[in-house]
Each structure stands twice: as structure tokens, then as C-alpha cells.
Amino acid sequence: MKEKLYFYYTNDLHSDFSQWPRTAGYLKDMKKNRIAREDAHYLVDVGDHMDRVHPISEASMGKANVKLLNEVGYDVITLGNNEGITLSHDDLYHLYDGAEFEVVCANLKHKEQNPPAWLHDTRIIQTESGVRIGMIGLTAPFNAFYGLLGWHLTSPFEELEKQLASLKKETDIIILLSHLGISEDEAIARKFPDIDVIIGGHTHHLLRTGEYVNNSLLTAAGKHCMYVGEVILTYDHDKKELIHKEAYTTDVSSYPEDEDTRGLLAELEKEASGILGTEVVYLEEGFQADWFSDVPMMQDLTETVRKWTAADASLLNAGLLLDGLPKGMVTYGDIHRICPHPINPVVVHLRGDELIEVIRASLKKDFMEIQLKGFGFRGKVIGRMLFAGLSISTTLRANGTEAVTGVTFCDGSAVEKQKTYRIATADTFTFGRLLPEIAKSEMKQYFLPEFLRDLLLDTLRNKTPQP
């Protein structure tokens, strides 16, 4: 007898709830169809369902996302970095207390050897016909962040070496839920042929019909759940082996919305509005945002970051403030709206010559106009870089570009080219190659769980003494 097993998956929603009712509608319809046909079927998510950019996720610290997953009827999920490192230790520890699904993440460990009850390395699901499916989850090992929050991430490869031997003995099929990215998934497939399917995420790649690497079928459905993935496995009960694997993705961006999901989102939005409506500061005067000018409020925030981190100097990009605020009472929701990024402060060690190069690069027009997507940034463009603790002299060239002519510290002392300085900035610039000198710094000190918006609130409170 040959039996088909169906797996529907999502990845990297990033709290794009404008799309979620369509995604939920499609998944519910697929479940209904499979139940009618008596087919074995499962719903899985591969992480970054939550993103604190959205007020609902911010107000609930991700627990609203869990309610949404429960409402659709998920079976197994793993964590993404947005669940893992943008929440405080306690908020992550209790994030899935109300989950009606299994959570697998083999490389997430609790530093005090006291893991939450919901956290499992692997889970084995058995179909009614007796097929045993092993599920293992892995997430991106950002230990520089996790370590500050009371967690530790083991190496995904070492964890697979440890877990696969027993899974192979106890299961008929092994599926990896990977929030590691396409390059890591391909490397895992080459090294571990016992993994039948790798359902991936993190790098937002879209594999419309999957791809084979070694013995593993790799699949992923892009970002924001505009696509839903489907894996179909054919198991031969007579041979007692998996004989065929297929993977597809379906564009659900125009699928009819599910009314129950829309209703739940409306309830969650109302709850979030109440929580975020808390008044936090009164402004005696308002301020405007301008991504390409030296905005006084951004300058004040840059100085706050310098003092708060006890750095020699600091630099922040004006694109961090999406909007200004008028005179009057400000709520936490207002702070979140104008600075929604899950970005932490960081201090990096730079030599004087590296610092000068960072300043020169950051003031180039092309850099300021980068429409950045990712690395925690949830704005439009990087914008102009502002500095605290430094005095920057520039001149306009004949072609209209700005050139740096001098850099000193505000006390008048020179920047010594071979001396190492502690420079505070947004952790965005420690990733990728936006500012290579910062990204390659061998000494990075991240500050968690505070986001830059927390320091923005401190800045506003200090600027306007409260009664």
C-alpha cells in the first residue's frame, strides 16, 4: 500500500497581519479538504512568525502570534531569531505557555539548565497508519545576543550529529524545520543524507517547486506568507520506505480572507491599542523627522546612546525615526510607531583610521539613500548619519557631494589613527557589509533587551522634565 502524507508550512510572516487572514483561510481550507479525504496532514511554521514591528506583537510580546497559530490549528513549529532574541528572557520563557502545538528547537538551550516545558529538541508524530515522522528544529545561532538573555545556542551541525542517530532508529521519515537560511540548509543536506526534507526560512528565499541537494528535498516559501508551502511525501508500507517527495508553493496573496481570523485580529488589535495607549511622557514642544538632515531629536538620541553605553562616541542614522511627534501627551504606541525597529544598541571597537573611514562612507549620498530591508531595520532609507562626541567638518564639492575635511572629538582632541575607541551605534551595522569596519570589528558589546526606542523614550523624558 502506498500512502501520501501532506505537510503545509509557513515561514517568516514577520507579523504581516494584513496578509494573515488570507494565509489562514487557505490553510483552513486545505485542512478541511484533507480531513474529508482522510489524508494524513500537518501544519508547520519555520519561525519569525512574530516581529515586534507590529503593535499587536509589541503589546502582547508575541503571545498574540501564538493565539493566531492556535486558531489555525498548527501542529509543530520552530523559533526564528525574532522570537528568540527580540524578547526578554522571561518573555521568551513563557511565550509558548499557551501553545496548542509542539515547539521543536534542538539547538536552543537554557543557560541554567531549566528549559521551559514547551521546548523540545525533536518530536515524533505517528500517522494513523503507523508511519513515524521525526521533526527536528534548528534556529540561527546568534549567541552574542542569546547569551545576554540567559540562553545558549549550540552548533546546528553538532546538534544534528547528536540527534539524528536516535531519530533514524525511531522514525521512518525525518523532517528538519530550519530557520538557518538557504546556505546552511544546503550544507546540512550535503552532510546529513538521513534528512528527507528540509523546510527552510530566515533568508526569505522562495523555492517554488523545491530543489534536491544530495538526498534531501529543500523547500521554502519566501516571506510575509504571500506563499504557503506544501510537501507531499509518498510512503510505501510494503517496502517500509519513503519512495517519492514533492514540494510546491502556492501564491495566496489574493486568496479569500478567513472571517474568524479577521475577527480574532480585530480583538487582538483592540487589546493592543489599550496596552500601547499608556501615556509615557508629555512634550512641551513637538519635533519633526527628516531622514537627510541633522534633526535635533535624532542628535539628542545619539547622545543618549553614547552616554548610556559609556562610549567614546556614537553614531546613528536619521532613518531610524520614521516620523515626528506633536506637542502634548505621548503614548508608548506613539514611540513604537515612530521607532518600530527591533534594534539594540551596540558598542564596537574601532581604530581611529577605521572610525574616519566609517564617517566618510556614511556621509556619502549613495549610502544615505539605501532602501534597507532587514538587519532589524523597519524603515524606508538609512538616512543621514548623526554623531555624538565627535566634531565633523565637511565641505561641498563642485558636483554637490559632501566631503569630510576633519574629524576630532568634541573636546578638541585628535582622532589617533592607531588608537582603539569604543563607538556606540545601532546593531544593524554589525551585520552584512553596510559599514564593513563595524561589521568586522572583533569586539562587539551588544546591549539587551533594550531597543533604541527604549532609549528614545529616555531621551524624551530627560528633554522634558515631568511633573
From TrEMBL:
<dbReference type="InterPro" id="IPR029052">
    <property type="entry name" value="Metallo-depent_PP-like"/>
</dbReference>
<dbReference type="Pfam" id="PF00149">
    <property type="entry name" value="Metallophos"/>
</dbReference>
<keyword id="KW-0732">Signal</keyword>
<dbReference type="InterPro" id="IPR011240">
    <property type="entry name" value="Pesterase_YunD"/>
</dbReference>
<feature type="domain" description="Calcineurin-like phosphoesterase">
    <location>
        <begin position="8"/>
        <end position="205"/>
    </location>
</feature>
<protein>
    <submittedName>
        <fullName>Metallophosphoesterase YunD</fullName>
    </submittedName>
</protein>
<dbReference type="Pfam" id="PF02872">
    <property type="entry name" value="5_nucleotid_C"/>
</dbReference>
<dbReference type="GO" id="GO:0016787">
    <property type="term" value="F:hydrolase activity"/>
</dbReference>
<comment type="similarity">
    <text>Belongs to the 5'-nucleotidase family.</text>
</comment>
<dbReference type="InterPro" id="IPR008334">
    <property type="entry name" value="5'-Nucleotdase_C"/>
</dbReference>
<dbReference type="GO" id="GO:0000166">
    <property type="term" value="F:nucleotide binding"/>
</dbReference>
<dbReference type="InterPro" id="IPR006179">
    <property type="entry name" value="5_nucleotidase/apyrase"/>
</dbReference>
<dbReference type="InterPro" id="IPR036907">
    <property type="entry name" value="5'-Nucleotdase_C_sf"/>
</dbReference>
<keyword id="KW-0547">Nucleotide-binding</keyword>
<keyword id="KW-0378">Hydrolase</keyword>
<feature type="domain" description="5'-Nucleotidase C-terminal">
    <location>
        <begin position="291"/>
        <end position="428"/>
    </location>
</feature>
<dbReference type="InterPro" id="IPR004843">
    <property type="entry name" value="Calcineurin-like_PHP"/>
</dbReference>
<dbReference type="GO" id="GO:0009166">
    <property type="term" value="P:nucleotide catabolic process"/>
</dbReference>
